Amino acid sequence: MVLSSTPKDICILRLSAIGDVCHAVSAVQAIQRHYPEAKITWVVGKIEAMLLQDMPGVEFVIFDKKQGKAAFKQLKETFKGRQFDVLLHMQVALRANLAARCIPAKVKVGFDWHRAKEGHFLFTNKRIAAEKSAHVLEGFRGFAKAIGVPHYEPTWQMPVSDNDKNVSAELLSGLEDVLVISPAASKEERNWLPERYAETAKYAKQKGFNVVITGGPTDMERQLAAEIISYLDFEVLNLVGKTTLKQLVCVLEQAKLVIAPDTGPAHMAVTMGTPVIGLYAHSNPARTGPYLYQDYVVEVYHKNLQAQFKKSAEQLPWGTRVKGKTLMSQINVADVKAMFDRVCEEQNLI
Q: CATH code for 9-146?
């Protein structure tokens, strides 16, 4: 334990992204259970706050990166006169490291040496225990352990309201056995091909599922959804750009199954206990895959890693990414259908 006494005032620094803050929620709520009297403040990104706001017992301070230097100045002003017992600095990006400088804390806990990138170690004075081949979620669990929280299996209580649940229920009104396809990742190269999403949707329809497509309001996401639908000869519910993040969480909760690439909604579904088939090519699913459903990943990451570096994941720095704009095209429909059948059987979905 890095602290000499029970912490009373804890600051969490994890700005982004959606999937990562979902992982962090399990750590924060474990800390709350172990230290119910502690005050917790979470410095988080503007978009991510839309998902997390109203979490019981947590004060959120929004860091809006679009404000540039003004965001750091605002952070200093917000914490003027305060002193946290401990800062859990859960992000190695340079922007987050600079934000850590603006947060007054006696103890600043960061990642171990192996994971401390972009000068991360310069902004902390304590480190979590090193772990070999750890998932992102397990890294966050290390921060909870560092301040005395016993080992725990991750659970989530996402802060959604009755209104969020009611809106999502209305959106899905009349639909049973829902398959959600959340087709878009943050980078277009991580998206699967629209015609292959469509082939999978057709297969699910034949199995008795109703298909729902979800996503955010960007042009890329709208276009991808439209392309998928253009290959279909039956109606699907297109919710792209039509839900808030909290409403989307509730939609994912009502689904029986989710298919998604390396994207936030995959991890949002995990928080609600909905099985996920993850489609991975660029990043190691053992590090960033849907945590509770890593056995359901369809991936071409490892073969591309071997092709590009002539080494296995065990021989390379953990989290090494592979590059290429067409890697996702190596995931074939037959493998996704086979995984679909396996998940349906193991999870008793049909």
A: 3.40.50.2000
